[in-house]
Amino acid sequence: MFKEFIKKIKKYKRIGVVSHIRPDGDCIGSQVGLSIWLEKNGFEVDAFNDDDVPVNLEWLTEYFPIQSLDIEKIKKCDLIILVDGNALHRFSHIESWTKELDVPFWMIDHHPDPNDEFDLQVSVPGASSTCELIYNLYNESNIEQLEKSAAMALYTGIITDTGSLQFDSVTPKTLEAVADILRRGDFKPNVVAEQVFSTKTESQYKLLSLALGTIQLYESNQIATMYVTQEMLEETQTTNSDTEGFVNYPLSIAGVKAAVLLKDLAEEGVKMSLRSRSNVDVNVWARELDGGGHQKAAGAWHPGPLEKTIEDVISIGKKQLNQIETT
Amino acid sequence: MFKEFIKKIKKYKRIGVVSHIRPDGDCIGSQVGLSIWLEKNGFEVDAFNDDDVPVNLEWLTEYFPIQSLDIEKIKKCDLIILVDGNALHRFSHIESWTKELDVPFWMIDHHPDPNDEFDLQVSVPGASSTCELIYNLYNESNIEQLEKSAAMALYTGIITDTGSLQFDSVTPKTLEAVADILRRGDFKPNVVAEQVFSTKTESQYKLLSLALGTIQLYESNQIATMYVTQEMLEETQTTNSDTEGFVNYPLSIAGVKAAVLLKDLAEEGVKMSLRSRSNVDVNVWARELDGGGHQKAAGAWHPGPLEKTIEDVISIGKKQLNQIETT
């Protein structure tokens, strides 16, 4: 999959590697893994991201530094590679700079439906992660170049984007890649997993404690809701970002087909995260609530108040369940 | 590792496969995986366990039935194989029946320090799981015999005994085994992971909600405690078994080196689960509290009351931390 990439990259000298806004493990992991590959192959490399690297991933920037986006520095690059996103608007200022910059934009990504706005793209929808793709880059060029730091970066991205190798995107090839990554990197899985996943705070658990108390089940336990309010955030001194992953709790109750996390925060209306682990299509569901997304994960919005939101979201969910049962 | 096993088993005809008390995923997975292997290789097979198969693993008994231990049936077997335990007392009545039964007892297991009480043993301490060993049995005999049902059973045991492939026992070979298991079994990881892990109840989360509210941090956040009381179980209509895995919550707080779950239930004293994710040896710690176990996981007991237990457990933990810092 990297044949054209490997052939064409030879004519460039200084390369900027940019990862997407609100970076996650796969984004930072692939950025660090690619930057190390580029450096090992004789390129000058700058890695950019405008947002802060999440605390649990900061250790990865010791393997390769990530700078804030800087148009003067970008101008010195003769190629920009965007990782883990398939539309320019996912890369902060990059979209608005494209006209000013006379430089090709390449992309490496695994999300579906890529935009047609890149000069070269390695787009593999359905791959577990962009990090799995970067592993393939090493494998198709010189796998001996895959050493500890890049291996740990790629492993981070693969496990964070697959719920610790549990998602349906994980194939035998993914696991063979991870086996090779562990062997070449010579590290134990727990060394990375603990750094990446064991970074909760006492406050987050106090918030989770309050949120778990709000779980409600509907339609013979097929739909579960959980909510977080502004008062809960204030009481536990937490913010919206501390609710990350909360929706997985109601979703993991036996029999639940879909779950909704409602966030009634200090803003207009109620935001929702919808998740499915069945043939319930939460994308269809969310579209009736001013939102959308994918079949298994979507976001939505309701003007509120909270009680009315729950009533409406359950009424739409019920309709969805009935449709599935009759098809 | 199965050379002698494969050679010697040929002289037997009817084989009983027994798994240990309070069965878990690796225990049932290896029992089902081995029973299918035996049947495919022409043996008559009975699988036994005296305890109920946990609800999230019941689907595995559709692949191979598991009966209650029955001495009359056991007497008809000319070989008994014990899986996922390395001492006879881990197998319910088996220990007391050994004198009465004139039949060899074999063992397949991955725990450390096996007892010397078996006629043949395949003991590989440090292997991720007994299921990984059973995979090797297929691999060393005829891997073509590994089909969907056994593959799903073995996958279940490997992921449940490794925290979803995250523990330090997971090696490149483990991941290559899992890759082969997924390929031959022709299933997606989420199909099993959801059945095995997404089986929480609303009551368990109500209990977790109360327990999370009790988290306390000590010694600059290096030690975390969480507790469950009899009143909490009554309020949420749960039992002791619903606290399974709770200790991982305090353990996953940033900076925590060791965590203690205290259970002040309707019995004498306070039971404790101690877990380490550092060089803190909770086995040493637990030995000062009428208990023991391994470096990273141990159990202990204190006469109570709860407040005094916490005070004592923290005082011992503090001593442990100091010892580590000075060595």
Question: What tags apply to this protein structure?
Answer:
homodimer; 327 residues; alpha/beta; inorganic pyrophosphatase (n-terminal core); Diaminopimelate Epimerase, Chain A, domain 1; 2 domains; six-stranded parallel sheet; six-stranded mixed sheet; 13 helices; globular; Bifunctional oligoribonuclease/PAP phosphatase NrnA (chains A, B); DHH_sf (chains A, B); DDH_dom (chains A, B); DHHA1_dom (chains A, B); nucleic acid binding (chains A, B)
Describe the 3D structure.
Two copies of one chain form a homodimer. In chain A, α6 (148-161) packs antiparallel against α7 (172-185) and α9 (202-212) runs antiparallel to α10. Chain A is an alpha/beta fold and 327 residues long. Chain A folds into two domains: 3-197, inorganic pyrophosphatase (n-terminal core), CATH 3.90.1640.10; 202-326, Roll (Diaminopimelate Epimerase, Chain A, domain 1). The radius of gyration of chain A is 21 Å and the shape is globular. In chain A, strands 3-2-1-4-5-6 form a six-stranded parallel beta sheet. Chain A contains 13 helices and twelve strands. At the A-B interface, α7, α8, α9 and α11 of A face α7, α8, α9 and α11 of B.
